[in-house]
């Protein structure tokens, strides 16, 4: 799959769908493009014990078998641009079955389950730089 990554530009604000608005929490937003269309985005955020990777794909591109390839390429982009990183975490709601299937399809295993709010629990996944080649080849 031919996707590109680039830094967010202010003119992207009108092009980004509502299902990616949750990512606008830092200046580290990276745009994922396919055929000159914004199909997703990711950002890195500092968390209490490392770095969290926040990843989103536009709804129009979900369920089409593209997610695994795009997430693998995203992980590769993260570590190429941030060579000092050794690992990144995903925090995924236990109710978000499609995201859990996607992450686990790359062989990334949940480390813990945590409850942050009264109704929602999260699974924590940790992706290690040492195993990067395992993920980007799949």
List the helices and strands and how they pair.
Elements: E1 4-7, E2 30-34, E3 37-47, E4 50-57, H1 67-81, E5 87-93, H2 97-105, E6 110-115, E7 121-128, H3 132-136
Antiparallel strand pairs: 1-2, 2-3, 3-4, 5-7, 6-7
Keywords:
single chain, 138 residues, alpha+beta, Aminopeptidase, three-stranded antiparallel β-sheet, 7 strands
Written description of the protein model:
The chain is α+β, with helices and mostly antiparallel strands and 138 residues long. It has a single domain, classed as Gcn5-related N-acetyltransferase (GNAT) (Aminopeptidase, 3-Layer(aba) Sandwich). It is built from 3 helices and 7 strands; from the N terminus they run ββββαβαββα. It has helices spanning 67-81, 97-105, 132-136; strands spanning 4-7, 30-34, 37-47, 50-57, 87-93, 110-115, 121-128. The strands form 2 sheets. The chain has a 4-stranded antiparallel beta sheet with strand order 1-2-3-4, with helices on one face. A hairpin with a 2-residue loop joins strand 2 and strand 3 (37-47). It is globular, with a radius of gyration of 14 Å. The model has no long low-confidence stretch (mean pLDDT 77).
DSSP summary: helix tally: 3
Beta fraction of the residues?
A: 35-45%
Distance between the termini: 12 Å
- Return the string of H and E elements: EEEEHEHEEH
What's the story with the biggest beta sheet? 4 strands, antiparallel
Name the average pLDDT: 77
Low-confidence stretches: none
Number of domains: 1
Q: What name does CATH use for the topology?
A: Aminopeptidase
* Morphology call: globular
Structural class, judged by helices and strands?
A: alpha+beta
- Counting DSSP E segments of at least 2 residues, the number of strands comes to 7
Q: Specify the CATH homologous superfamily.
A: Gcn5-related N-acetyltransferase (GNAT)
CATH class bucket: Alpha Beta
**Based on the structure given, which CATH architecture is correct?**
3-Layer(aba) Sandwich
Computed Rg: 14 Å
């Amino acid at each position: 799959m031919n996707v590109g990554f680039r830094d967010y530009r202010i003119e992207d604000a009108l092009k980004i769908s509502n299902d990616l608005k949750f990512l606008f929490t830092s200046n580290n937003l990276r745009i994922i493009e396919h055929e000159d269309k914004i199909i997703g985005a990711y950002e890195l955020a500092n968390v209490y014990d490392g770095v969290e990777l926040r990843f989103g794909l536009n709804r129009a591109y979900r369920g089409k078998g593209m997610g695994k390839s795009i997430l693998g390429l995203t992980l590769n982009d993260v570590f190429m641009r941030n060579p000092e990183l050794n690992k990144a975490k995903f925090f995924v709601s236990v109710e978000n079955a499609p995201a859990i299937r996607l992450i686990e399809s790359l062989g990334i295993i949940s480390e813990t389950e945590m409850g942050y709010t009264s109704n929602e629990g999260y699974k924590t996944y940790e992706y290690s730089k040492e195993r990067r080649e395992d993920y980007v080849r799949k």
